[in-house]
Amino acid sequence: MNANLAPPSHAFLFCLLSASVAAADGLPRNWPMAPSELEKRFAREDFTVRKAEETSSGITGALKLVLAYPDGKELEVKWKSVPPGDADGWNNAPRKELATYEIQKLIVDENDYMVPTVGLSCLPMEKFQAVMQLKELADQEGGETDEDEKGDVDDEVRPSLPGSSCVLGVLAVWMKDVRARERFENLDRFRSDPLYARYLADFNVLTYLVDHRDGREGNLLESTIAGDPRVYAVDNGLAFATFPWNMRVANWWIIRVPWLRRDTIDRLRKVDKPRLQRLGVLAELEADALGVYRVVASGPNDNTKEGVRVRGNRVQFGLKPREIDQIHDRIQSLLKRIDSGRIAVH
Q1: What average pLDDT does the segment 73-80 reach?
Q2: How many CA atoms lie within 13 A of 236 on its CB side?
Q3: In angstroms, how far apart are the furthest CA atoms of the chain?
């Protein structure tokens, strides 16, 4: 605990409790619909891509897409294609994005999610080619495309997995009304703003659990909506003991806030090893007759030693045993530090 930060007063804690109750109503800010509904749409519903453009930051080729669903709903999402071959890159690991999204469910309800809803989708080749054409049109309209460097879209598109006929990627709901700061946390505000303290404390528990090691500006965002001081982790590929990691920034794999919320820690105490073992299979897809992978119900873990398991026409994404053990060990270590008084809880 930071010695120059005094424990919160009783009045502060009363405000914190009141803020927690008020925040429990309605959908989480920045989500166009309930996360549970988004999960179903990403996994099961077909869509048409209306718009595609490059994102303003990032180094892994992410795109901002507008998806249109048969019922007339439109969603703005971030798309990131998986690394070709093993679909498990150093700084582009879909399974780690999926795992971080699931782990937040251990400590918060969906109205307080801090990781955008994510899902896997494999776009048939012609559909992905159309996406890239939309992106090139957007580049031309924005004056960003050099005619001599455009290349042939058809030549650039390759299937993600051997024997498939689709490009696999991660969909994530697009965050609006947010900003990036060079220094993410504001400890003066933590002392004076009960709602900000609540969100940042829970955020820090999550980043600690997943061993988040990329606190680069743009990966961690805060809300710009007055009275809604939420914080978000939108890029979580460098986690779960990834090496090397981003060592030039302030990372959040340690506890950086002065104290944690008792309700959150009480929930964490109930997380046992069998519950964590479910993270071994986060998603499963099966190729149809045309070689397009579709999300299906997950089966038993095909190979606990691998994070991405391709077996015939099926592929699984999940955490490895050592990564699950790491989460369990970090939980136990955190609880010991709390019980010994080294980390304050209120």
Answers
A1: 96
A2: 33
A3: 66
Domain presence at residue 15: yes
pTM: 0.87
β-sheet with 283-287: strand ranges across: 293-296, 283-287, 314-317, 308-311
* Total number of residues shown for the chain: 346
Show the tokens assigned to 193.
């703003």
Label residue 230 exposed, middle or buried (CB < 10 Å: 0-12, 13-18, 19+): buried
Report yes or no on 4 lying in a domain. Answer: no
Q: How far is CA 109 from CA 16, 138, 267, in A?
A: 17, 37, 11
Under the banding of pLDDT at 50, 70 and 90, the label for residue 143 is low
pLDDT of residue 248: 66
Contacts of 77 (CB under 8 A, 6+ apart): 64, 65, 66, 67, 171, 172, 173, 174
Q: Has residue 228 been placed in a domain?
A: yes
Range of the domain at 97: 10-345
Residues forming a β-bridge with 74: 68
Number of domains forming the structure of the chain = 1
Q: What is the per-residue pLDDT across 184-193, written as a single tens digit (0 to 9) for each?
A: 889 999 999 9
In a domain, 5, yes or no: no
Nearest Cα residue to 286 out of 278, 297, 294: 294
User: Which is nearest to 174 in space by CA: 287, 29, 322?
Assistant: 29
Dihedral sign for Cα atoms in the order 19, 20, 21, 25:
positive
Question: What span, in angstroms and rounded, lies between the C-alpha atoms of 262 and 195?
Answer: 15
Give pLDDT, residue 58: 52
On average, the pLDDT of the chain sits at: 86
Q: What percent of the chain has pLDDT over 70?
A: 84
Give residue 215's Cα distance to chain centre: 13
